[in-house]
Write a structure and sequence with these properties.
The structure is a single chain. The protein has about 140 residues and is α+β, with helices and mostly antiparallel strands. The chain folds into two domains: about 1-60 and about 130-140, no CATH class; about 70-120, no CATH class. It is about 50% helix and about 15% strand. The protein contains five helices and five strands. The protein has helices at about 5-20, 70-80, 85-90, 100-110, 110-135, and strands spanning about 1-5, 25-30, 35-40, 55-60, 135-140. A three-stranded antiparallel β-sheet has the order 3-2-4, covered by helices on one side. Strands 1-5 form a two-stranded parallel ribbon. β2 (about 25-30) and β3 form a beta hairpin. α2 packs antiparallel against α3 (about 85-90).
């Protein structure tokens, strides 16, 4: 079983999510070596020519694929905020700038640390499950 460092995988997830938003790349894990390839248009680092065709290279899903975007925010609000604030959060996400407004609200409610822990735990759980499904062992 190939091993991948959790911190490096976490960075790759952030990269994959940003690359997906920009539409110009993603992150891939070499299922034989555990090497992580971060790919985007114009990147100076060369990557394997067959990274998009060879099943050896596993594309890392982005945060939305793991429900780590707004669905996670809604689960957090449902669990840790009042009904009034939960409704307010849902309304926030109907317009641009929602994450900024959500950050402001959790600061006002003293929930920033709780949110960060909740988000980090959900991310670790999603990545751990994905790795197990793909025969990858997480280190760290």
């Amino acid at each position: 079983m190939v091993k991948v460092n959790y911190s490096e995988l976490e960075d790759a997830l952030m990269f994959a999510s940003a690359a997906t938003d920009l539409g110009d790349g993603g992150a891939f894990i070499d299922s034989e070596t555990g090497e992580i390839w971060l790919i985007c248009d114009g990147a100076p680092e060369p990557w394997p020519e067959d990274v998009f065709e060879n099943e050896r290279y596993l594309p890392l899903p982005d945060q939305r694929d793991f429900d780590l975007g707004s669905p996670l925010v809604f689960r957090f609000a449902s669990r840790f905020m009042s009904d009034k604030d939960e409704d307010k959060v849902r309304d926030m996400f109907r317009a641009p700038g929602a994450y900024r407004r959500f950050d402001d609200l959790i600061d006002k409610r003293g929930l920033r640390d709780k949110w960060h822990q909740y988000r980090d735990d959900a991310q670790r759980e999603a990545l751990t499950e994905w790795c197990a499904e793909n025969g990858i062992e997480l280190e760290g």
